[in-house]
Amino acid sequence: MPTGHHLRVGIFVFDDAEELDVVGPYEVLSAWSLLSDLRPEVVTFSLDGSGIRCAKGLRIVPDVGLDGLGPVHVLVYPGGAGTRRLLRDSEHLEWVRTMRASTPLMTSVCTGSLVYAAAGLLSGRPATTHWSAFDELAVLDPSVLADTETRFVDDGDVVTSAGVSAGIDMALHLVARLESVDAARAVRREIQYDPEPPV
Questions:
Q1: Is 173 inside any structural domain?
Q2: Where does the DJ-1/PfpI domain start and stop, copy by copy (predicted)?
Q3: Within a domain: residue 157?
């Protein structure tokens, strides 16, 4: 990340985005903003600034639209049923490529990686997605090195995560990467996230 600049994270929201894909990373990154001396700014945005309806009915009023977003250091692109419409939208894919050119770190949650693949961002690179979407990923770009095992894949300037709750793990990884492991541990404690799945 650039030094000497205010760190800004933009979370893209759209109709039929999966709720936890959005609010999981938002919770982590907003808690980080409150705890960290870096004071990162976390903003939500939709294409036109209008409110959106997530996949299960949660309505979100974003902070801004594209026109008011300005530069961000990190883009978080969630998944959900709405990605299938967006990955067929050539104008939207061109916007994703434009963001890639100006954004140091592009991240996705769940099927957000399908949009990145459709835009050509994942060609020849390791990436992950929701467990049920790997066939779609392969069709969109057969050169993607699909990782079906990990919760997230950090490939430098692009970080993808697996389905839904994996966005929380990815966001904690971003905190560790952008500040420190200790900062990520403090955030994890703040949000009391310490999963122990049943065997």
A1: yes
A2: 8-176
A3: yes
The number of residues in the chain equals 199
The verdict on residue 63 lying in a domain is yes
> Residue 107 and residue 121: Cα distance in Å, rounded?
11
Tokens describing residue 43: 């903003």
Token duo for residue 20: 């936890």
Catalytic residues: 110
- Domain hosting 102: range is 8-190
Predicted TM-score (pTM) of the model is: 0.95
Question: What's the CA gap between 8 and 13, in Å, rounded?
Answer: 16
- H helices of the chain, where? 19-35, 66-69, 83-86, 90-102, 112-118, 134-140, 166-178, 181-190
* Residue 35: other Cβ atoms inside 10 A: 16
Q: Is residue 117 part of a domain?
A: yes
pLDDT digit string (tens) for 94-140? 999 999 999 999 999 999 999 999 999 999 999 999 999 999 999 99
CATH code of the domain covering residue 42: 3.40.50.880
Per-residue pLDDT reduced to its tens digit, 45-87? 999 999 999 999 999 999 999 999 999 999 999 999 999 999 9
Number of domains composing the chain: 1
